[in-house]
Each structure stands twice: as structure tokens, then as C-alpha cells.
Amino acid sequence: MSRIQGKNTSCELIVRRYLFSQGFRFRIHDKRYPGHPDIVLPKYRTMVFVNGCFWHGHTDCSLYRQPKSNVAFWKEKIERNRSRDERNRLLLEQSGWRVIVVWECELRQKHLRENTLPGLVNEIWE
């Protein structure tokens, strides 16, 4: 697991490039905030997390499958990740931030990405 890339993933880069092309300026992986958000847009009081479907346990998603070996470990690991994500989201929202989660499955296929990215921009402007 030490070789799993946690920052600057391909999905994260897709979102960052799109937001930058739309004129947004942001910080990345800001350690001052709970969960170290992938993208922080201070002007809009918005934080964006780009979550991998497997690691964050995206239910009803084709990219999330429960591993067949070491089931107890993985079930506990994914559940801890989910509860940590929820705790961080609540802390950020209580501090006055809007939190947006973009899932890996929404960015993998081009036709889904073409709907997700403009929708993200609309959600930031709200």
C-alpha cells in the first residue's frame, strides 16, 4: 500500500486542469484543513475532494469491489476511510466551508466527465 499514489492522481489532475482553464485559482493539498483537501478555493469558501472509488468505498459503483482475500482487513479499512471522510466533511462544513466530492467513476469515461466538470463549476458558483 505504500506505493499507492495519494496526491496528484490522474483524476485529480483532470479536475485541476479543468478548473484552471475556467479561470479558477486554488491551493492544493492544504495541510491546514482536516482531510488535506485536494483543491481549496478560498474565494468561494469551497473545498473539493477527488476520491478514488475503491479507497473511499463508493457504494453502487462498478469500480468498488470488495477484495476476495483478507476480507476482514479490507472491510475495516474501507469503513475507517468512510468515517474519517465524513468526520472531516462535517468539521469543514461547521467551519463555514462548502465541501464537494468528485468520484473517480465520474471522471474515468469521457461522456461522464463532460457532464461532471461543468456541473462542478456550477456547484462552485452557487
The biggest sheet amounts to: 4 strands, mixed
Q: Order of SSEs, N→C?
A: HEEEHEHH
Distance between the termini: 38 Å
Portion in strands: 5-15%
Instruction: Give the overall silhouette.
Output: globular
What's this, in brief?
The chain is an alpha+beta fold and 126 residues long. It is 44% helix and 13% strand.
Polypeptide structure, described:
The protein has 126 residues and is an alpha+beta fold. The chain is globular. It contains four helices and four strands. The N and C termini lie far apart (38 Å). It has a four-stranded mixed β-sheet, sandwiched between helices. It has a single domain, classed as VSR Endonuclease (Endonuclease, Chain A). It is 44% helix and 13% strand. 21% of the residues are buried. Strand 2 and strand 3 form a beta hairpin.
Topology:
Layout: H1 10-21, E1 27-28, E2 39-41, E3 46-51, H2 71-94, E4 98-103, H3 105-108, H4 110-125
Parallel strand pairs: 3-4
Antiparallel strand pairs: 1-2, 2-3
Which properties best describe this structure?
4 helices, 4-stranded mixed β-sheet, globular, 126 residues, Endonuclease, Chain A, alpha+beta
